[in-house]
Amino acid sequence: MAEHVVADSAAPRPVVSHEVLHHGKVWDLATDVVDLGDSQVVREYVDHPGAVAVVALDEADRVLLVSQYRHPVRHELWELPAGLLDVEGEELVVAAARELAEEADLVAGSWWTLVDFFTSPGGSDERIVVFLARDLSAVPDADRYTRVDEEADMALAWLPLDEAVDAVLAGRLHSPTAITGVLAAAAARARQWSTLEEVVPAPPG
């Protein structure tokens, strides 16, 4: 039996037709007729702009979590700082740095790509890239972002990475981004961070 390389790969099938069923505030609901070769199928999905998230670790290997109300699930979730890719042409790591500053008032001196995943590939094309951020410092008071809506009252908590892993395995954390990022960070640390690729944000302008 031939051995298979276990790695996801892009393999788009021909789209016979595409229709936007609903234009939303952030994402759309779309339907495609897809040609699978021996048949055609209809697939409805959320057409999402994508997002980035940040595992911010301090000098004591504590991870920063932020609490945010998520109305569809009616829960306050502890999450990683994260945000949509809603600035056209913005570099992924720059978007991550922007979200870290806006949601946590932090700047990072070092960045690595940690993990890249699809949140719900059966019903959405949302893709999230999670970065590891270290060498943290505070955003000056005069430069801090004014948070509104669900973000206005976000609580912040620093949790030792091992305790964050325990929280994931005990079912106390439910955000897929937090779960994926925390477990990926713990796995990378166990390998002395040797598997990670450092990323240097492009200078402004």
From TrEMBL:
PROSITE patterns hit by this protein: NUDIX
Coiled coil: none
MF term (GO), any: hydrolase activity
InterPro entries linked to this entry: NUDIX_hydrolase-like_dom_sf, NUDIX_hydrolase_dom
Family matches, as Gene3D superfamilies: Nucleoside Triphosphate Pyrophosphohydrolase (3.90.79.10)
GO biological process: nucleoside phosphate metabolic process; ribose phosphate metabolic process
Key words, A-Z: Hydrolase
Record-level GO cellular component terms: cytosol
Pfam family, one: NUDIX
Ranges where the Nudix hydrolase domain occurs: 46-186
Record protein name field: NTP pyrophosphohydrolase
Source organism: Cellulomonas chitinilytica
